[in-house]
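step=encode ok
step=design start
structure_in=
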């Protein structure tokens, strides 16, 4: 059993020392060797996020009348997202706590929208590629829905034909990712949207990890396949601010093509002695700091700042791709954003990944096939050559591939 709360309080200085010591075994992301969990655009961006968070740390986003500042910041952040993702007039959205909540809200809104059309949504089904985030399954559990996962094409993208074949009378939603987390590739959203339109289905695009990156990469001249509201048939989009938006954690956006489609996620009840309660997201109390910090980081960077960050990340990814191929790896699919996954036909990838971890390089792995997964940040541009040098040493000395898979995060 852990100890209870100490009787006596403690001075901040001592607490700070204790907390620094506790963090001693954490992934040392400040050195830039972490290509997972942390999006690192440098100290200046972090300072803005920290200061803005602290400024609004006590304020509550639950109460737009008491804190009109937060309501305005949320509206503006959502507006930035809608504009970047080419939403039409009348589109709507909210800031949520993260990608998982954004996905849950989209599935709830979808289910309620169907209910509103008089449809029985018992066991309503979402058809998704196997590369879709587990947040869809978590939401399905909470909403009494189901997810049917469909194998990918050989290019690691959603297989539209197979997904179409998986649609049945229970299907309410199709999912595509832009990009998917495991391989960093963008699913064929235009083709999925065509299916959604002919079948009358809701198409959710999970742009959690790409929504605040892809638009800027496209502005830089990267050929990014259409994935946003410019594609007719895209109904809702999740895009995380706390990923390539470089905002402190606890901030995502969930965006809908129209107010009608958004309506189902809003909770509105008059059931207790305090009168009516209306909340647009899952939370009651909402952290003012997370909303304010996202707003401040976005304004601090602006389009130009995000474009520079995207350029650094894409440049780092290009160096990684060329470098790993030079030592015999194969890049899975054709990633164009900040994620890249690669495997080796001859060497045991799990061993290489373990040894890279011993050298303090923190990244994810995938299974099927075995691969090393990097989620790159702007700070990595200066470090990828060190990474590749270490990777070459560990690859050359690694045992032959066994064919056994061992995916998963380093928890
Ligand atoms: C990160 C991520 C999510 C989940 O977001 P959280 O903020 O971790 O809840 C969903 N989908 C994709 C593609 C992601 O990369």
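sequence_out=
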């Amino acid at each position: 059993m852990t100890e209870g709360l100490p009787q006596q309080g403690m001075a901040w200085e001592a607490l700070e020392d204790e907390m620094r010591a506790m963090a001693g075994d954490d992934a040392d992301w400040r050195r830039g060797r972490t290509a997972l969990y942390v999006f690192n655009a440098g100290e200046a961006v972090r300072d803005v996020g920290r200061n803005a968070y602290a400024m609004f740390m006590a304020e509550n986003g639950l109460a737009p009348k008491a804190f009109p500042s937060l309501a305005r910041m949320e509206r503006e952040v959502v507006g930035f997202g809608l504009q970047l993702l080419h939403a039409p007039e009348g589109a709507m959205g909210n800031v949520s706590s993260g990608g998982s909540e954004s996905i849950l809200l989209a599935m709830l809104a979808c289910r309620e929208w169907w209910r509103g059309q008089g449809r029985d949504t018992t066991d309503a089904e979402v058809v998704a590629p196997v590369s879709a985030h587990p947040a869809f399954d978590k939401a399905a559990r909470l909403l009494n829905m189901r997810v049917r996962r469909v194998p990918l094409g050989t290019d690691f993208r959603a297989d539209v034909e197979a997904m179409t074949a998986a649609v049945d009378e229970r299907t309410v939603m199709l999912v595509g990712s832009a990009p998917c987390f495991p391989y960093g590739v963008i699913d064929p959203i235009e083709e999925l949207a065509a299916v959604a339109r002919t079948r009358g289905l809701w198409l959710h695009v999970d742009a959690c990890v790409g929504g605040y990156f892809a638009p800027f990469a496209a502005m830089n001249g990267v050929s990014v396949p259409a994935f946003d509201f410019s594609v007719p048939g895209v109904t809702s989009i999740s895009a995380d601010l706390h990923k390539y938006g470089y905002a402190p954690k606890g901030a995502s956006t969930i965006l809908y093509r129209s107010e009608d489609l958004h309506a189902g996620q809003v909770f509105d009840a008059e059931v207790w002695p305090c009168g009516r309660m209306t909340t647009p997201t899952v939370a009651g109390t909402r952290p003012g700091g997370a909303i304010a910090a996202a707003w401040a980081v976005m304004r601090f960077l602006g389009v130009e700042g995000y474009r520079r960050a995207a350029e650094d990340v894409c440049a780092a990814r290009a160096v990684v791709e060329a470098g790993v191929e030079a030592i015999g790896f194969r890049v899975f699919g054709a990633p164009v954003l900040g994620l890249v996954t690669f495997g080796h036909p001859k060497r045991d990838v799990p061993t290489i990944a373990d040894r890279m971890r011993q050298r303090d390089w923190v990244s994810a792995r995938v299974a099927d096939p075995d691969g090393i997964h990097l989620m790159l940040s702007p700070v990595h541009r200066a470090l990828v050559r060190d990474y590749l040098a270490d990777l070459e040493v560990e690859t050359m000395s690694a045992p032959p591939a066994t064919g056994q898979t061992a995916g998963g995060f380093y928890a």
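step=design ok
step=annotate ok -> Residues 288-326 form the longest helix (39 residues).
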